[in-house]
Amino acid sequence: MTTILKKGMTKSEMNKEIQQIMRKKVKSIEHLAGKLQADIDPLEVQKRLRNEWGIDNSF
């Protein structure tokens, strides 16, 4: 979102614009937390990616 504050605006006009932005409701993605389904093992993917990068996993 972009808000344009024009040259010559009074301080009260700028504050009004800022307050309008702050009042808008922000969408939340919290309802998605922990609910993504995957058919793959994340550790296997990580190991495969590290092997592609040539990183030694023998520690």
Write up this protein:
- By secondary structure, this protein is mainly alpha-helical.
- It is built from 2 helices and no strands.
- The longest helix has 13 residues.
- The chain starts with 10 loop residues before the first helix and ends in a 6-residue tail after the last helix.
- 0% of the residues are buried.
State the separation between the terminal residues, measured CA to CA.
46 Å
Helix content: 40-55%
Protein structure class: mainly alpha
Secondary structure tally: strands: 0
Q: Calculate Rg over CA atoms.
A: 24 Å
Estimate the mean pLDDT confidence.
79
Taken as a percent bin, the fraction of beta residues is: under 5%
* Approximate shape: elongated
Number of helices: 2
Order of helices and strands: HH
- Low-confidence spans: pLDDT under 50, at least 5 residues? none
- Let me know the largest β-sheet: none
Overview in brief:
This protein has 59 residues and is an all-alpha fold.
Give the helices and strands, then pairings:
Layout lengths: L10 H13 L18 H12 L6
Record keyword descriptors for this entry.
59 residues
